[in-house]
Amino acid sequence: MAGRFAPRSAPRSPVPRQAAADPAAPREAAALTREWTPPGPLDLRLVLGPLRRGPADPTFRIDRDGSVWRATRTPAGPGTLHVTDRGGRIGATAWGPGASWLLEQLPVLLGAEDDPEAFRPRHRLVAAVQHRRPGLRLLRTGLVLESLIPSILEQKVTTDEAYRAWRLLVRTYGTPAPGPAATLFTTHGLHVMPDARTWSLIPSWEWHRAGVDAKRSATILRAVRVARRLEEAATMPLPEATARLELIPGIGPWTSAETLQRANGAADAVTVGDLHLPGIIGHALAGNRNADDEEMLTLLTPYEGQRHRATRLILLSGHTPSRRAPRMTRGDIARL
Q1: CA nearest 325: which of 263, 255, 275, 254?
Q2: Edge-to-edge strand order for the sheet containing 77-85?
Q3: Quick one: pLDDT at residue 159?
């Protein structure tokens, strides 16, 4: 679920394997900058937090001063974006072939097209969190594949397993981020995820080493073969975008919702099929920790059109049921 918890600064940890620099990549160019004034309160950590896949995500970093670093593959090529809150104004610096695209899309990324005023809380808990978190806006990256692939990796495994797979694969097959971020973080620099062709060329034993089973790796391979068509979903209305993604065998409602929440800023994309979410929503809104998807959707009916936003607010409330059973068993197919 995108934005399940309020993000925290990432601890620094050693790199398991350093990716070699791409000899075809252009030399570091001068940085481009931009300032933007958001239309209302904006909390960078809350807005951009859903893009981070674990505390050691090689494509994302929250610095000690609260600024955010993001390495991504744009339609114009790799790019690094550094975003800082300057007391009501947002300052951004970008490097690489994708720098201009990243700065042009900065307002959209930070929720300029989102409309928090359209949301009307129907529960006291939701109203209280909305009041405490005025800086929450729903981001929109406009990039489908970068959210789709890690969402596929998260299918039916623990988050630790999925984060490890994403980390190993990006550091091994991605490229160092343009600009200073590749070396600024001395223990593990930022990396740009591989392009579609590189994903398609990863050998089976490397998927296995990263702990990714054949079902998930096959789904990723099917997706990257039609990457251009999938990227078109970023400009589609939610029903059409969902249908486009779910044409790929192995991509169902859970994965499409997780992807479109980030790529499209879809305020109504509900994560169904999640192991924990129905119980959290049921507990928060009806005192029923055993709620299923059907009951969750019924409870969210008053928020039709804004169900993803309602879910994020509920998750940020911290009003979750206490654990009463062992966590999902972690597997490690790399040892088999």
Answers
A1: 275
A2: 32-36, 90-95, 77-85, 68-74, 60-62
A3: 94
Complete DSSP assignment for 208-264: HHTT--HHHHHHHHHHHHTHHHHHGGGGS-HHHHHHHHTTSTT--HHHHHHHHHHHS
pLDDT for the residue numbered 325:
58
3-state secondary structure of 268: coil
The position carrying tokens 């989102």 is 114
Q: At what angle do helices 159-173 and 145-153 cross, to 10 degrees?
A: 130
Question: With b meaning 16 or more CB within 10 Å and e meaning fewer, what string describes 91-101?
Answer: ebbbbbbbbeb
Q: Is the pTM of this model over 0.85?
A: yes
Question: Whole-angstrom Cα distance, residue 208 to residue 249?
Answer: 20
Q: Which residues of the chain have pLDDT under 70?
A: 1-29, 182-183, 185-187, 324-336
